[in-house]
Model the fold of this input.
Amino acid sequence: TFPDMGLFTMGCALMLLSMGSQLLIPGFTGRCLAAALAGDDENDGFKENLVGLVAISLLTAFFSALRIWNTAKLEVRLVCRVQRILFACILRRDISYFDSIGTGQLCSRISSDSQMLASIMTTNINLVCQKSIILIGALSYMFAIHAPLAGMYFGVSLSFFAFTRWFGNLTKRLSEGIQSVRAEANNVAMQSLSGIRTVRACTAENFERQRYGEKNTHLVLEQLKLKMCWTCYAPLVSM
Done:
């Protein structure tokens, strides 16, 4: 059984409440603006919609805060559990396994890889679910108002989904490369620091610094590739 099923269920409920209340905000905003433009800002209708807008905004903020805290707590617990399981699995491996992979790489897998896995399983999936709820609610509202416009919007959304899927596969490959290079750099640093007496005795400080610098430079280049992809992707999806 999933140990954090209670937190997961509560997170789903809070997500539905926060996203559902957020979908109501544009309706109240539109009615307030319509009343103000018509010169009816002193009427009871404007005041009622304004009170409703403030109330819905406060509810959205309240449910969003609870959802964020719930997600953060779930992520922290998930990271710790994944690290414990991974560490136990590494300890059960054959001795020959430790001859083929460095200690720094194993430590990097336990720390950074576990953190990335938990972030994907909590933050990223959380965002996907939030946007899906908003999309379904917006499409339902648009189909009720103007079906042809909603159909066009749905077609654009499908194109966006296809592009996002391709971009997700690209960033996945780049992230895997970054994690591998980071593990190699950590392995070089750990080898040098664990054998610092030998390094000093052989006056190999410059060699070790150069060896780590090459790995670190490679890591910077891989990270810049990923940042460049996000730099090109963000303006396209925000148009």
